[in-house]
């Protein structure tokens, strides 16, 4: 049934606790307007302390770090690395001086979270310093550019003739670096060249900011430096283009090649420690393969329900062909969003504030962005992928198939409610200081946990609905497998794409977009692992607390949202009100000792 009230997407929803969920009727409003009072919370509830005694300490660190980041603004410069590391070391020393025994359970959680974050940030700074050394032959002039900007920040007196000489030398150093690459000999790898090209962009931005600060205000500066600056910036831009085209392999008019930046076993170990995961990459792959096998068995059942024997590919192909006509996608997405909200309210599974129901928005994704995100992106605004009239015929058909009714139905609730939009709503209002400890194991894990839970509750009714949910669930397991193999150096991006096509059933364009998103974007190395692994952690915690009868389901979900974003092992401590020992180390084996 098509929605009739889409003149505005601010559709009216149900006031939780004041109107019955039965009145909703899948998108039909229970009442045509809202009183402003319906958005105001019970103020008595706001007087109840929600945070730990270390909240102000965490907020002070975040504020101080942000100020230093604005001041030392040249990314990964030697000075920035040194200053940030000194700050982190000083904060670690302060944490050691805290009277830990006097802290309550929430305070101890924040103490461990902050200490883990500081140690992790120091590890990232060490990684950045090592990469600077790796890139030094390509960027021998990087420190000279950074120093111009950093001297300005620290009000070092400017000598116009001297900075003109620095700019002139910069031009010579760029030419020498490029000449060395033109000469016969060993060439840098694509990964190092891609990093260097990215750093050149940062350096160009810093150099422009430095020049604009003085130019026009200091006549001597302009007289000496204007022409050398023009020549140097042109050389930087040309050198960046050279690295991207001749070394990385970027070709004009074509999509950027997927190079990625594998961090190796040591890099993964650092990130796993930060995420408080007590398993090795190999063990995580084994867990994912077990989940993948479950999906394959369910696919056979779905194919049989469709009368297709065990042919899961035929079942998937039928599902992909069920899409709406152009222009109808927004109405369908809104209908699916409110269908999920209705389903949750009827079962009273968690608290969904009226304000959260009424304030999400919708936008349409550009064709360019769909090359990286062929499906959805979400939060307070859900970004919908669908063909536009500027796409060529083949791209239109690809986008229609990728955004069919059932794939969409299986992911709208992931992006909105109870997923990312609801998470964001709570994060802004409960324990907001813990956004410093943001982790995809909490963010993506929670949204995927609801895909697990809704499957168990029968949200997927038809075999096509089940196929839509299974596609995503299979994909999440595959993400763990291909991303860890990539970062361990076992698989190339091309092998990752083939895996998604052959084993998950992606069309090649969506597989390519997913791998590009995973490796060419700014996602953390464990981001793709976090979706399903975070959900598996929450599933284990649900069994421990809810299925055992220790906690009602609604309280379980509400307290996770109210506790704020953090590694799931700390969520466990929060829900169980555990007073962690000072020497606590990650140890939770959420699927057993030998996965």
Number of extended strands: 2
Count of discrete structural domains:
3
User: Which segments are poorly predicted (pLDDT under 50) over 5 or more consecutive residues?
Assistant: 1-32
Distance between the termini: 45 Å
Please indicate the percent range of residues in DSSP E strands (runs of 2 or more).
under 5%
Helicity range: 55-70%
The average pLDDT score comes to 89
Structural class, from secondary structure content? Answer: mainly alpha
What shape does the CA trace take? globular
Q: How many DSSP helices?
A: 25
Radius of gyration: 27 Å
Main sheet makeup: 2 strands, parallel
Provide the succession of SSEs: HHHHHHHHHHHHHEHEHHHHHHHHHHH
Which sequence of strands runs across the widest sheet? 1-2
Key structural traits:
single chain; 595 residues; mainly alpha; 3 domains; two-stranded parallel sheet; 2 strands; 1% strand; disordered N terminus
Provide a descriptive summary of the structure in words:
The structure is a single chain. Helix content is 62%, strand content 1%. The chain is globular. Strands 1-2 form a two-stranded parallel sheet. The longest helix is centred in the first third of the chain and has 31 residues. It has 595 residues and is mainly alpha-helical. α5 packs parallel to α7. The protein contains 25 helices and 2 strands. 38% of the residues are buried. The chain folds into 3 domains: 81 residues; 107 residues, no CATH class; 310 residues, no CATH class. α14 links the parallel β1 and β2.
């Amino acid at each position: 049934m098509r929605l009739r009230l889409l003149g505005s997407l601010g559709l009216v929803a149900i006031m939780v606790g004041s109107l019955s969920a039965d009145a909703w009727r899948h998108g039909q409003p229970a009442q045509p307007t809202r009183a402003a009072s319906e958005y105001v919370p019970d103020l008595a509830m706001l007087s109840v302390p929600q945070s730990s005694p270390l909240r102000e300490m965490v907020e002070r660190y975040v504020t101080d770090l942000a100020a230093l980041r604005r001041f030392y603004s040249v990314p990964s410069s030697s000075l920035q690395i040194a200053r940030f590391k000194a700050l982190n070391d000083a904060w670690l020393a302060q944490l050691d001086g805290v009277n830990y025994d006097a802290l309550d359970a929430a305070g101890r959680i924040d103490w461990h979270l902050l200490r883990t974050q500081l140690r992790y940030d120091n590890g990232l700074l060490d990684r950045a310093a090592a990469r600077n050394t790796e890139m030094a032959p390509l960027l021998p002039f990087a420190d000279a550019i950074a120093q111009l900007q950093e001297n300005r920040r620290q009000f070092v007196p400017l000598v116009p003739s001297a900075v003109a000489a620095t700019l002139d030398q910069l031009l010579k150093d760029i030419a020498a670096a490029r000449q060395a690459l033109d000469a016969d000999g060993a060439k840098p790898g694509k990964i190092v060249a891609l990093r260097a090209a990215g750093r050149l962009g940062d350096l160009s931005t810093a150099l422009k900011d430095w020049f604009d600060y003085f130019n026009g205000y200091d006549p001597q500066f302009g007289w000496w430096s204007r022409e050398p600056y023009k020549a140097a910036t042109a050389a930087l831009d040309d050198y960046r283009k050279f690295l991207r085209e001749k070394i990385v392999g970027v070709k004009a008019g074509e999509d950027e090649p997927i190079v990625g930046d594998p961090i190796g076993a040591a890099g993964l170990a650092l990130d796993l420690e930060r995420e408080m995961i007590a398993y090795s990459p190999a063990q995580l792959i084994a867990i994912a393969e077990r989940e993948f096998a479950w999906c394959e068995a369910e696919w056979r059942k779905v194919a049989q329900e469709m009368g297709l024997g065990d042919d899961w590919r035929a079942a998937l192909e039928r599902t992909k062909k069920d899409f709406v006509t152009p222009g109808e996608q927004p109405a369908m997405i809104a209908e699916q969003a409110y269908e999920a909200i209705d389903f949750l309210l009827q079962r009273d599974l968690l608290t969904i504030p009226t304000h959260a129901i009424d304030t999400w928005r919708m936008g349409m994704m550009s064709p360019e962005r769909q090359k990286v995100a062929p499906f959805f992106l979400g939060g307070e605004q859900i970004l919908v992928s669908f063909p536009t009239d500027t796409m060529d015929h083949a791209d239109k058909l690809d986008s229609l198939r990728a955004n069919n009714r059932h794939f969409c139905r299986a992911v709208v609730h992931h992006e909105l409610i109870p997923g990312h939009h609801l998470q964001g709503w709570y994060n802004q209002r409960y324990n907001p200081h813990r956004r410093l400890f943001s982790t995809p194991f909490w963010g993506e894990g929670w949204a995927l946990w609801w895909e697990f839970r809704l499957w168990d509750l029968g949200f997927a009714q038809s075999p096509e609905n089940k196929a839509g949910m299974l596609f995503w669930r299979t994909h999440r397991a595959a993400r763990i497998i291909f991303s860890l193999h990539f970062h361990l150096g076992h698989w190339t991006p091309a092998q990752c794409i083939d895996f998604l096509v052959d084993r998950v059933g992606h069309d090649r364009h969506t597989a390519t977009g997913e791998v590009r998103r995973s490796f060419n974007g700014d996602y953390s190395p464990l981001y793709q692992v976090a979706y399903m692994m975070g959900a598996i952690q929450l599933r284990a915690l649900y069994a421990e607390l809810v299925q055992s009868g220790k906690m009602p389901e609604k309280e379980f979900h509400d307290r996770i949202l109210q506790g704020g974003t953090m590694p799931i092992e700390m969520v466990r401590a929060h829900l169980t009100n555990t007073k962690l020992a000072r020497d606590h180390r990650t140890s939770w084996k959420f699927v057993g000792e030998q996965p």
